[in-house]
Write a structure and sequence with these properties.
There is one protein chain. The chain contains twelve helices and two strands; from the N terminus they run αααααααααββααα. The protein is mainly alpha-helical. Strands 1-2 form a two-stranded antiparallel ribbon. A hairpin with a 4-residue loop joins strand 1 and strand 2. It is globular and about 65 Å long. The chain starts with 22 loop residues before the first helix and ends in a 7-residue tail after the last helix.
Length: 249
């Protein structure tokens, strides 16, 4: 069902002429260097994320002929979001990581909510048909209701997901104090107050916390989809493979 998850990426050639000579491409180069540094210096964190991604990929390659077509579409978006998160967090883009983690969680919650009542899929698809249709979608698809639906069937998973969702909002998924003031340094002297804001936070406590939170969300989201795609998940060994990746979370 998924045709955009290649096993091997083509090798990159040399950078184009002029790359790295302007502020934006220089910044993008810095992101890449931070990713490589995280890969090398935080190898344990990277290995867990790599192994989690491998489980997502195993599911992605084995959803052909599923009866859960709508949730499967959300699964692929969740996997893409999870990979985007990994890129952000390895680069040290800590605050932005939480915004994409929230997206990843929401993909799973929408999928589960529609899985519980497939008629909701038609409502969701009609969002852009009219103002009334948009209003109906907003009334039906409330995060609190989607979390409640998950908690009703899987209390522990639902509780963990609710906590993770709130945590992402607190740390950057919404503009708020915790997210805004991460990486802000304030110094004062007799003449002026200087405020410095860092875009990137590699090798900081906040960075390591974001790596851990990425793994937690990755586990939670995959668990939600494993419930949706039972017994296929059991046949693929997802539950058994997921168990050791939860250690320390």
């Amino acid at each position: 069902m998924n045709r955009n998850a290649p096993d091997e990426e083509p090798e990159l050639g040399p950078a184009p002429r002029g790359w790295g000579r302007d502020a934006l491409s220089s910044y993008l180069d810095l992101l890449r260097r931070n990713q490589l540094a995280s890969y090398q210096q935080l190898s344990g964190s990277y290995a867990r994320l790599r192994d989690l991604d491998g489980l997502y990929l195993k599911v992605a390659k084995n959803l052909d002929n599923t009866e859960q077509t709508a949730p499967a579409l959300f699964f692929y978006r969740a996997h893409a979001a999870f990979r985007a998160v990994i890129g952000l967090v390895l680069a040290g883009q800590v605050v932005e990581t939480y915004a994409m983690l929230r997206n990843c969680l929401e993909q799973a919650l929408y999928a589960y909510f529609i899985y519980k009542d497939p008629k909701r899929w038609d409502v969701w698809q009609g969002r852009h048909d009219s103002r009334e249709a948009l209003k109906k979608v907003k009334q039906l698809f409330r995060i609190s209701d989607m979390l409640s639906a998950l908690q009703a069937d899987h209390p522990r998973d639902g509780s963990v997901t609710a906590d993770l969702y709130e945590h992402t909002i607190n740390l950057g998924a919404h503009p708020n104090a915790f997210g805004l003031f991460q990486g802000v340094d304030v110094s004062e002297d007799s003449e002026a107050t200087t405020i410095v804001t860092q875009y990137l936070h590699p090798s900081t406590p906040a960075h390591k916390a974001a790596l851990l939170e990425t793994a937690r969300v990755g586990v939670a989201v995959l668990g939600i989809f494993a419930h949706i795609f039972e017994p296929r998940s059991t046949l693929l060994g997802i539950w058994n493979d997921l168990a050791p990746l939860k250690t320390g979370l």
